[in-house]
Amino acid sequence: MIQWNIIGQSSAQTAETAKEYFHGFVVYYRPKPTKESIENEISFMDSLLGEPFDSHVKVRDVATSTTKYEDESSTLIASYDTPILMPLTEKEKNVDEDCIAAFSETMNVKPAVFKHFQDSILSLYNCKRIQFTTEGELKENEKSTYNFVYYLIKEDCYDVKYITASSEAEPFCASSWMQNADYNVVQETFERNPQWENSLVIIDVTGSMSPYIGKTMSWVKATQDSSQISAFVFFNDGDATPHNKKITGRVGGIYSVVNESFSSVYSEMKSTMRKGGGGDCPENNVEATIKGTDEFPECDEIIMVADNWATPRDMKFTSQLKKPVHVILCGGSMGINEAYIQLAYDTRGSVHTIEEDLNMREIKPGKQFKVGSSYFTLVNGRIVRAKHK
After folding, report:
1. For every residue of the chain, which 3-state class applies, written as one string?
2. Exposed (0-12), middle (13-18) or buried (19+): which is 117, by Cβ within 10 Å?
3. How far is CA 268 from the centre of its chain?
4. CB within 8 A of 131, min separation 6: which ones?
5. Helix 111-125 and helix 35-49: axis angle, to 10°?
6. Residue 78: what pLDDT?
7. Please, which residues have CB within 8 angstroms of residue 339's CB and are 6 or more apart in sequence?
8. Is the pTM of this model over 0.85?
9. Above 60 in pLDDT, residue 82?
10. Any idea of the CA torsion for 321, 327, 330, 332, to the nearest 10 degrees?
11. Cα separation, 305 vs 353, whole angstroms
């Protein structure tokens, strides 16, 4: 799938100055996960899950909290406060104040621990507008106090108005775990469907899914006593098996855990992430679901948490699924991958986005239906894209 962003540049007053602007295409590829990037993602999720549940699971304009995060060598005290006054450059003067969020953190840790956390922030946020200061003399094996602040442009502000006002988007963080409501899609879907109980949840934990996984784990931690989820299956598309060695239907990298304690669930999830981050685009969703339903046949509901941008490599095995599959799509705001609609239709299940639920049993041949911003229809048992009439 391709996400297109069309940017208009309207600041030029004459044809000559307009010629100086960039005209063309800029292509960004999804980065391939590495061991380092996976560790950075896990480190940030550890920090995220150390926070109180309600400061992360719901999107808030102002979030203030103090949390202690402990490991063998340090204690992290992090405070998030917004708004923070941000010095603007001349090109940034017209940016709407409501579009800016800022976060400050104070850490009292050993230098090596701070360096790991700093690398995580820089890797996940791609921040250039970030300020680090230290207090006192830094010593290798002693704790020191570190202060830093980083600024975010809220994601719904990346529009023509902002680009026109400022061509310097790069000083800001590229994305925010706190601001993207779509990351809450699993929680929102379960809350809309309280009838789902004794559920088996199959989750893609490849690298591109980490923001959704982090928010989902926050919700799981806070609702541990709920009867909605009985077991989890995590899959990573093959445990780092080379692409040319993957055999469809036998790719592997699938691990399961009973939802008896959050620590066991979270530990199994991180272990699965570390064993492989995917790499190539297709994933072994159906294989993981078959294995999960074989291991937990007593579960009443089958929930697949899927990466909308990665098509299942093993759709030909869908007929082996004997229960309806409810597909929760992560990353569906810019368009829907019809392969997941097909999977839900073939199993008489449903499709879910951050805003809506679609029961595939209600779909009729030749009739258009809408998922997100895309239109589809059913032709000879196949889901195809349709032009809206």
Report:
1. CCCCCCCCCCCCCCHHHHHCCCCCCCCCCCCCCCHHHHHHHHHHHHHHHCCCHHHCCCCCCCCCEEEEEECCCCEEEEEECCCCCCCCCHHHCCCCHHHEEEEEEEEEECHHHHHHHHHHHHHHHCCCCEEEEEECCCCCCCCEEEEEEEEEECHHHCCHHHHHHCCCCCCCECCCCCCCHHHHHHHHHHHHCCCCCCEEEEEECCHHHHHHHHHHHHHHHHCCCCCCEEEEEEECCCCCCCHHHCCCCCCCCEEEEECCCHHHHHHHHHHHHHHCCCCCCCECHHHHHHHHHHHCCCCCEEEEEEECCCCECCHHHHHHCCCCEEEEEECCCCCCCHHHHHHHHHCCCEEECCCCEEEHHHCCCCCCEEECCEEEEEECCEEEECCCC
2. buried
3. 18
4. 148, 149, 150
5. 100
6. 34
7. 311, 312, 315
8. no
9. no
10. 120
11. 11
**Percent of the chain at pLDDT exceeding 90:** 42
Residue 282: which of 315, 311, 314, 249 has the closest Cα? 311
Residue 355 to residues 44, 105, 184, 235, 270: CA-CA distances in angstroms?
A: 27, 33, 11, 26, 28
Q: Is 253 left (phi over 0), alpha (psi -120 to 50) or beta?
A: left
C-alpha to C-alpha distance for 56 and 65, rounded to whole angstroms:
11
Q: Is residue 126 a contact partner of residue 147, using CB atoms and an 8 Å limit?
A: no
62 token code pair: 């102002």
* CA 306 centroid distance within chain: 10
Please say whether the beta carbons of 178 and 105 come within 8 A. Answer: no
Q: Which of 76-90, 104-118, 146-160, 305-319 has the lowest mean pLDDT?
A: 76-90
Q: Poorest-confidence range of 128-142, 243-257, 355-369?
A: 128-142
Which domains does the chain show, CATH number per domain?
Answer: 34-165 (no CATH), 181-385 (3.40.50)
Listed in sequence order, the residues at least 6 apart from 116 whose beta carbon sits closer than 8 Å to its beta carbon are 43
Is the pLDDT at 34 greater than 50? The verdict is yes
